[in-house]
Amino acid sequence: MKNIIRCSFKQELLAGFLLVAVLPLVVSCLFLIQLFKAKAANDYRKKDLEQAAAVEERLLELFSLLDQTTGELAKNEMIRQALAPKTYGRRSEIYSILYGATEELRGLAQFDLYSVDGLCLYSTGTGMFHKTLPPYWGILKAATVRSGELSLQKAQTEGTWLLAAARPVRGEESENVGFVVVSLGEENFEEVLKGVCGSQDGICILDGFFETVYSTGTARREDIGGVLRRRRLLGEALTEGFHGNSVYVSALSKTGLYSVLLRPEVFTEDTVRSMYTVLFIMTGVSFLLCLAVAAKMSSHLSQPIRTLNTAMREVQEGRLDTRVHTDRIDEFGQLADNFDTMTARLSEYMDERVAQQKRLNEVQIAMMQSQLNPHFLYNTLDTMKWVAKANHIPELATLAAKLAKILRTSISGEPFLPLFEELELVESYAEIQRIRFGGTFAFTCELPKELSDCMVPKLIVQPIVENAVLHGLAESDEGHIAVRASESDDESSLLIEVTDDGCGIEETVMEHLNSRDKKKLKGHIGFYNVDMIIRLHYGDGYGLKVSRLPEGGTRVIITLPKQRGDASAPERGGGTV
């Protein structure tokens, strides 16, 4: 797909326009949907938590009043005497105490007084007289075990009661003489929770085993207790959403009960799906509109490019008289004018180039006819060497052999050679000069074995030695020229030092040589060429440096990168020519 778009400037413009027009819309809509979803969910979650806290507060307030009331009844002396075995109190006084203590709660719960054997003796309700509860299990057993605290438990008897609470009544010797029992039914919970939740909400009260005690609204249609019990067994979060509802679970203090609030989720899958459907419709409409506008605009902008492309193909085929005619005055019009100017100048240049090439060919033919063959010169020098040996002229034989060696290296096609070969050429040159000047100077060369195979550009030391012979020792009857190879302190560079003990270099000449200015190096073109060759190969960090020696004479240091070659070199030490 990417290659298809990139093969045409018009398609690139079209894709760019569509991307700029549609992509921000899609990204903005997605961002707004997610932002609105997060904001609304956060706001509704705060309201849900407030409502869950209100449910918890109502229930805790109810259980607190029950605990306080049952505590007062359990401590009442007349009630203790009335519940004690083989004692009877006046029923009217007992009922007066019972009704007086439960006046504010009788609309929310039923209060009963049971004997230690589980026989109901007094009640605020009807039909409870002589009703029995088993003392060895159920709520009475739980109250006995908890030793004076209010116990809450899901009602075990059939009927309208959902939750039972009981507190033991202790005698004078702390023995259990009876129980204060509280029963709550569905209408009691509805009265307590009136106005807390709406018709779409659900409230559920669970015991410690997540068995449903009371449920209303959407919680009545769902076995929320069973769901939470399975989640706890599987180690899952209890508050995870359930059937499109948010779940809020609260532990009701020390009662052992749980309150569960179910609130419908704000963003259901249908709501989100509807929002994305609207987004896709808007994107589709925008895409079609942008497609029409972008197609028109891209066609308008790409037409001059196609015209120029056609004209350039014609130029590539050799038709340099091709011209682009346009009446546009914008950048494309300027581009067309520049193209016409370029083709006109190119046509003129090609005509001139053909004429120059014709003249150059004529000159080259003439030069080739008068040019000496370097191999003929080398063979002639070799012949001179053998003739000199045959006629017992050793100096002439040495000159011919050394000059032939230098010539052979200079005409070779290899631009680099090992350092030991370079210094052998320098020794050959020094021998030629020694014979020329009658042996008036000495030449030494020091090359450590570990540096002998370093690769250097050929013929870079000979011009420096030549300067030492012609300028440094020009006014001396005898002298010494030394070449020494070493490495830098960090072992990354190769240093070739050429020194002489001659007259020394003038300050101005040394400044000119170190300046690397060709205009100032008139008469020292060899020095400039060597420095330029090194810098072209390795960069401005390398090259030649000239200095004066304190005891007299001149030092030239050639700095090169230390690069190893494959050529092997014989062991070399210092020598004298």
Helix content: 40-55%
- The H-level CATH homologous superfamily of the domain at 415-576, spelled out, is Histidine kinase-like ATPase, C-terminal domain
CATH architecture group name of the domain at 415-576: 2-Layer Sandwich
Number of helices: 16
The CATH topology of the domain at 415-576 corresponds to Heat Shock Protein 90
- Please give the radius of gyration in angstroms: 56 Å
The assigned structural class equals: alpha+beta
CATH C-level name of the domain at 415-576 = Alpha Beta
Mean model confidence by pLDDT: 79
Low-confidence stretches: 363-373, 567-577
Strand order in the sheet with the most strands: 15-16-14-13-11-17
The total of beta strands comes to: 17
Tell me the distance between the termini.
76 Å
Largest sheet descriptor: 6 strands, mixed
* Overall 3D shape: elongated
Q: Beta-sheet strand percentage?
A: 15-25%
